[in-house]
Amino acid sequence: MTFDLLVKNANLPDDRTGIDIAVSGGKIVAVEVGITSEVGRIIDAGGRLVTAPFIDIHFHMDATLSLGTPRLNRSGTLLEGIQLWGELKPLLTRDAVIERALRYCDLAVAQGLLAVRSHVDVCDDRLVGVEALLEVRDLVKDYLDLQLVAFPQDGFFRAPTAAKNLIRALDMGVEVVGGIPHFERTMEDGRLSVKALCEIAAERGLMVDLHCDETDDPMSRHIESLAYETQRLGLQGRVAGSHLTSMHSMDNYYASKLLPLIAEAQIHCVPNPLANIVLQGRHDTYPKRRGMMRVPELMALGVNVAFGQDSCMDPWYSFGSADMLEVAHMAVHTGHMTSRDAVKANFKAITENPAKVFGLDGYGLAPGCNADFVLLDARDAIEAVRLKPNRLAVVRRGKVISETAPRTATLSIEGRPATVEPWRYAPVEAAAS
């Protein structure tokens, strides 16, 4: 058999080593040791990690790369970010949103990020962001999967035309129902918005992804309503609760009730480590809360936890680089998840776990899967989280669409090596652990 592409001597996230991956017709056709055949192109992984692509399951592409327009967020706070978005939104044009989104997708591809779920604000009656990102979704479909969430950012009930605009966005082809219950005027309005939004999703056969309890208030408990509505309407496995930062502040007794309810309802939980730890706790003195949901405890209950980047150089977050390994790296630190198994779990939270939330077909590194994968300048998943290494090759449907040189430094120090390659500093037992 003739293959289009053959990757030799790769390590995989499940700790298999010395594996070859054969590709034909845009699909993976074999994953085994010692494949020999005629082939169009061979890539020697050289004992480095090959992984299925990274996935960002929570992002705001309508705002990305807008940092500085119309002004900078000087305080770096969530409240100033919200104010800034309100100033920027009337200035948005379809062409400008498309241009920024495409530039971001270029960066994402270079980082091995080939699937993004983006929330898009529907509270602008022009629906400029919706129109723009629907076009972007079509423009990038050959190299990046873009899934859109209709997001009533100013509140489903609080914004006068949000409910109507959300339905318009869904009719235009947006795939997921979004919401922000904690931003409604009252807790009761928040509860009712969860009910209404889940009913819309159930009626249309759509998924749900709510910004939920993104606050330091431990009494913000809309995730409880979301779990209830998910079960009432039979939406298990189709619902994501994003942020859930109030969980950080809840007392342990209530959390002991809440977490099993989330597991029972099969809700996907989506922390956004980079944004959550800098936007929450701003009213605290010391000790300061950091606003991360209880990731280890949720994982221990079998809840599917998937990380999002949330923002990249926009009104809310002035950093970001489309690097999901940066997200996992931060989560490891904030969650005290430094055991070997915990670091591997964090790697899954930017790969296979978000693929489940996304409903991504053909994802993985097995025969029959789409030939989408990334070769990293690192030995294994733990080292990838540690190093945030270069993406040596990014493959989409069997075609190499991005390449980056290995990270190598040249030394001019007498008696020391001529070069330094960070990936070779992995502990000897890492590959077998």
UniProtKB/TrEMBL annotation:
Recorded superkingdom = Bacteria
**GO terms, molecular function:** cytosine deaminase activity; isoguanine deaminase activity; metal ion binding
Q: Which residue intervals define the domain Amidohydrolase in the entry?
A: 41-400
Give the GO terms filed under biological process for this record.
cytosine catabolic process
UniProt cross-references to InterPro entries, sorted A to Z: Amidohydro_3, Metal-dep_hydrolase_composite, Metal_Hydrolase, Metallo-hydrolase_Enzymes
Q: SUPFAM superfamilies this protein is in?
A: Composite domain of metallo-dependent hydrolases, Metallo-dependent hydrolases
Q: Name one Pfam family in it.
A: Amidohydro_3
The record's EC number reads: 3.5.4.1
Q: Which UniProt keywords apply?
A: Hydrolase, Metal-binding
Q: What is this protein called?
A: Cytosine deaminase
Instruction: Supply the source organism for this entry.
Output: Neorhizobium lilium
